[in-house]
Amino acid sequence: MMPFASIAAASRAVHARRKLGFFRRIGRNNRMFPRKLQFTREGKIFVWITLGIGFAAINTGNNLMYLILGMLLSLILVSGILSELAIRKVTLRRDRSQRLMAGCEGLLRVHLENGKKRFISYCVEAEEILDYEGVHQVPAYQLRLGPGESEDAFIRVRFLRRGVYQSVGMLLATRFPFALFRKGRVLEEAREILVHPAVYPVQIPELLTRSQGLERSQPRPGLGGDVRGVRLYQSGDPFKDVHWKVTARRGRLMVREYEAPATRSVWLGLVNTLSPCSESRLLQSLVAARSASPNQANTDALMNFLKGVEARLGLKVTRPGVRGILATLGLRRRLLTVEERVGAVEKALRGVGKANVETAVTYLASLVVALLKRGCDVGLATLDGRVELGNGKRQRRELLDHLARMELRDDAGSGLLALPDRSTGVECLLIRPARADVALPLGFNHVIEARSLEASHGV
Amino acid sequence: MGFDSLHKTVSYLLVLCGLIAVGASGELIVWLPWAAGAVFVGSWFVQTVSTEDTPWWWTALLMAALAGFLVLAFWSGEWLTHTVHFAVVMAVAKLFQRQTARDHFQLYTLSFLLVVGGAVLNPEISFAIVFVVYVVVLTWGLVLLHLRRDFEDREGAVRALRGADARDVESEPATLWRTRRVLRPSFLAGTSLLALGVFVASVAIFFVFPRVGLGFFFSRSRPGPTVAGFSSLVELGHWGTIKDNPTVVARVELPGHAGPLAQPLRLRGLSFDTYDGRQWSRETRYTAHAELSLQRDGRRAAVINEASPEDFTPLEQRIYLEPLNADVHPVFGAPRIRSIAVDESLLKQLGGNRTRFKQGWPSGDITFSGATDASLFYTVHSELLLQTPPGVADAGVDYPPGVTRLYLQLPDLSPEVEALARSVTRGAVTPWQKVQAVERFLAQGFEYSLEGGHDPEDPLADFLLRRKEGHCEYFASAMVVLLRFEGVPARMANGFYGGVWNDFGNYYEVRQGDAHAWVEVYFPGYGWLTFDSTPASGMLAPVQEGWGERLRRGFDAAKLQWYKWVVEYDLGKQIELFRELGRKIASWGPDSNTSLPGGKGIEGLRQWSRDVFNRGFLVSVGQWLLGIGALVFGVRRGIRWWRFGRRPGMRRDVRRAHGAWVHLEKRARREGIDVTASMTPEELVAALSEAGFTQLGAAEELMHLYQSVRFGGRALGAEGIRTLDRVARAVDQGRCEKMRRAA
Predict the structure, then answer these.
(1) Which of A207, B235, B377, B380 yields a CA-CA distance of 20 to 30 A from B441?
(2) Does residue B263 have a pLDDT over 60?
(3) Residues 6 or more apart from B136 whose CB is under 8 A from it?
(4) Rounded distance between C-alpha atoms, residue A326 and residue A338, angstroms
């Protein structure tokens, strides 16, 4: 507990917390404004028609037009009132921890509760407010929520890339009753969604199977074998392993622990930097040579290299869109300059490098899961830190969490992978991204290049 | 009814409302409503296609229709009508493409266009009925459209989430779609209530929305059926054909009168001064314009300066006149009109600020000119002479020259007519005595008849000397001619006489059959006085009675209210409405001086409440509530029966099987077995087996039957019912031997 300089300071802190909590409560649940209002396609047409009818009524003085105008305005009015009633006093609650996998459809559970005593809420949707590219989301939908009722609903979501996503809150919205507009209420409660790298079936490299004897792998504890002893229950342990007599005697949940064969251990490593690939180095050297001595030979070498990379990566050398049209009219130069082309190629190569590192992460994650399934103890070392050797579901979660949170670092100032003293029989395998020029860090005795698993699985 | 069926029904109703709204206007091409109706009905039974699968010839057909209507519109200049025609074609064509929410929305938009077209072309009360239905159905339709849109969007979103080639998109929305979970009674009732709310809000906004006509495209008031019979010429014999016509040509409200007048209402139109032996005409020279003076409330009034006798009763008439098909347009009103009041919108309609009201001299006839193919509303103040003014019997013969020039005119008539005039008025000295004599003569020996066939050369002589029967024109013409022969200025006047009192709306319905002609005689110092020589049997048009007539009057009263408060609702009425509302609210204040029926201010309101909400009122309200409650209960039971009771035996089977099982449970309890609420059928049978139940086989068979009917949805049928009865009887005979031995 944080010490306070005085009782008064403590009191002030407590009151500040309370005040903040009070506003947080208002902001979260009871505030009616602001509301997010978004017109649907039909709503826009409806509004335009209403304006048109209003204009016609005022100009012609035809009272039946006023009658129709009254109908249209009353539909808008009723729509506003009922949509407000639908989302008012509806509370949302999320599950605390949510882990998803990149590229796969995941479900985020939300709990909806209608706090109204008399009114039913129809057609309410809930979605996370995620402002990221590459995120597909289908809001949770509740067709009917009676007064006082609560239901669980699921947001379907698919993240294309792994990482840590910050949701700034949730949006509770409805298009009830006429789908003229979508009215929403923002619940300002940020949370983190951790997206693990995608995992695919992968073949364990031969060097690991030979050295670790994984071709004769045995199941891990919980699936059979001699009982070794009892230990405290841990989350994830199967209930059938619970030793009820010991539990009753000791008053705490105890599980059987089985004799395990000699463990097989593997350290995996990944240098998570955007190190320049060989092509980038070559480009830099050609540019430097041309700058130093701008003769025809150097220029030709550079241009040939650029053409080759542009053709391979499908880059355009002409200006797009309006600028292209202006160039055609002679108002601008159509072709990109050499400098612009060099910049574009560098950017593209950097993007390729990034993609290669992500491919390596996916491969690494798949390898981790495969090894854990085979009963190995797996550890992980990256520039962001280390996860010690272990096995089981918890270890799997820790490893994948580490890979999810891992960031790509720039080349300059990156650290070194550090491994503990390598024990006999522990293999240390470095995963290298394709085309990356990575030196073998201390402690690692093998390097393999990551393969694209997405392509082989048709993704 | 599933979701799809309900949505289809609602969409069809919307289009039907649109078709009726424009069809009832009578402005469409004759064959189009029939063709559209046939296609409308046929499309119900046809499988719909998606917009993408529309065959090329269908599109070509629609384009051809568009081209055709464009050509017609160019040629005729009637752009609005032909636009409506094309909208009708598009609407019925769209009925074949109702698959997605977008298709339905387009259908709703087309139906809306038709309703808007109906609002312009058809201002009659039929539009009111269509509008009410349309508001309700549109509310339903939009709610269902929203649900369909939600379902489709979610299905699309799930597909997009899983990729373009996702094949196994399991439909949580499609599941909802197919179930009846959506269409619960509470949902249906709520939507109906919502529709009612939308309607009430629509009406409120209609009355409150300010009427500020910018007038770029000023539209006429409602057109309507035209009234024949008023022209600057009246030929003897033509009017008889319209005597039986019940078409309402005018509606006359009498503010300040709760019921009809003591004597029939007479509405004067035009007078005729010149008779050529076969027809009457009007002298058009020597006309004068009436002065318009602006009154404080913004309504203009024409004041007619005319001498008035002392004993008269003022009568205010609010006249709603249907469009006239005539070359002269009289301002109708009870004789001796003193003033006319019209509003700004009517003046605009009649052509702006230029004076459009004319008063003829010396006839005093008031006519108007302008856009007369539309209905009119104006207020007339008249002076009624309910009895003969004293002293008129002694009125002299000091006639103004203008009167004698016009109103003693006679054509070349048969000398016999002149001789008749002299013989009829023998012994009469004063003009009054002569008038009385002629009236008496025509009242005896002459009969009223609508038959024509008088001598076309001299119909009047034929009437007076030979046939002695005819309709009001003959009687009036005869009286005028006989008086003119005796030097008494007289003229024929026509208009309407009688009418039907409509007690639903407290106004007179003036029908075409009420058209009438009478005589006006000039008396110096008294002006023109009205006389009617037509026999009583021919003065009033026949009035129908019975339930049909009551219904018609009720409908006509609704029509008038529709015209007054909707079609003709303008800024003036709006201001008047809010002022009245404000006065009423102010009158409820504690210090108000305005009297309520029970007294002043709040105490008056309390007294009024006590007077109104008395025992009799409460009893009748209670009766109404009871009746409504019984109706609602009956309807709910009927719906429940319709949903459950009609299925062949299903619910009865369940009740029967359940009843048999409950009986077994009671039997088991009586035998000493502890039967709990949570006990399953298998557990009960197991308990019976342990207790040595003698009819265990029957109990097992009953268990299987019960479970299959109650939970498996099986229908028993006649054989099953017999089996059920058999096992139930057997079970009833069973005993638990072990329990008894233990006891």
Answers:
(1) B235
(2) yes
(3) B192, B195, B196, B198, B199
(4) 20
Q: How do residues A28-43 score in pLDDT, each as one tens digit?
A: 444 555 678 889 999 9
Kindly list the residues from chain B whose CB atom is less than 8 angstroms away from the CB atom of residue A55: none
Rounded CA separation B221/B372 (Å): 10
CB contact under 8 A, A64 and B197: no
pLDDT for the residue A27: 45
> In which residue are the tokens 């003709």 written?
B568
A285: Cα separation from own chain's centroid: 37
φ and ψ at residue B502, rounded to 5 degrees: -100, 105
Q: By C-alpha distance, which of B144, B118, B147, B113 is closest to B131?
A: B118
| B16 — pLDDT class (breaks 50, 70, 90) | very high
Mean pLDDT value across chain A: 78
Closest C-alpha to B248, from B470, B532, B543: B543
* Measured CA distances, B700 to B623, B659, B670, B725 (Å): 55, 16, 19, 14
Residue B486: pLDDT band (50, 70, 90) is very high
Kindly identify which residue of chain B lies nearest to residue A139, measuring between CA atoms: B154
Amino acid at B413: L
Long-range interactions of B369-374: CB distance < 8 A, separation 24+ = B369/B329, B371/B220, B372/B323, B372/B324, B372/B326, B372/B329, B373/B220, B373/B223, B373/B226, B373/B323, B374/B220, B374/B221, B374/B222, B374/B223, B374/B224, B374/B323, B374/B349
Where is average pLDDT lowest: A74-88, A279-293, B177-191, B448-462? Answer: B177-191
Q: What is the mean pLDDT of residues B459-477?
A: 89
Strands (E), B32-90: none
User: Contacts of residue B219 in chain A, CB cutoff 8 Å?
Assistant: 60-62
CA distance A338 to A301: 12
Element (H, E) at B507: strand B507-511
3-state secondary structure of A389: strand
Which ipTM value was assigned to this complex? 0.71
Where do we find the tokens 């002893």?
A: A229
Residues in A closer than 8 angstroms to B178, CB to CB, are none
Residue type, B82: H
Q: Could you tell me the CA-to-CA distances from A390 to A366, B404, B697 in Å, in that order? A: 16, 131, 62
Round the CA-based radius of gyration of chain B to a whole number and report it. 39
Q: Give the C-alpha distances (Å, rounded to integers) separating B100 from A448, B148, B217.
A: 53, 8, 38
Best residue in B7, B205, B566 to probe A by mutation, most A CBs within 10 Å? B205
Q: Taking Cα atoms as reference points, which of A438, A430, A434 lies closest to residue A354?
A: A434
- At B480, list the tokens: 């005028």
Rounded to the nearest 10 degrees, the angle between the axes of helix B56-76 and helix B79-94 is 160
Give the position of tokens 């559209």: B36
Phi and psi torsions of B361, nearest 5°:
-130, 135
> What is the full DSSP assignment across B558-589?
HHHHHIIIIIT--HHHHHHHHHHHHHHHHTTS
- Candidates B109, B116, B127, B221, partner chain A, best to mutate (most A CBs within 10 A): B116
Crossing angle of helices B101-121 and A63-87, rounded to 10°: 150
Q: Are B161 and A105 in contact (CB under 8 A)?
A: yes
Q: B194, A178: Cβ pair inside 8 Å?
A: no
As a whole number of angstroms, the distance between CA A281 and CA B720 comes to: 88
Residue A123 with chain B: CB contacts under 8 Å: 146-147, 150
Cα separation, A77 vs B201, in Å, equals 9
Model confidence pLDDT, tens digit, residues B633-658 = 888 888 777 665 555 544 677 888 88
Tokens of B349: 């309609």
What is the pLDDT confidence band of residue B613, given thresholds at 50, 70 and 90? low
Measured at the alpha carbon of residue A115, what is the angle toward residues A111 and A119, in degrees to the nearest 5?
115
With residues binned 3-state (H G I as helix, E B as strand, rest as coil), the percentages for chain B, rounded to 5, are 50, 15, 35
**pLDDT(B86) > 90:** yes
SS3 per-residue string spanning B679-707: CCHHHHHHHHHHCCECCHHHHHHHHHHHH
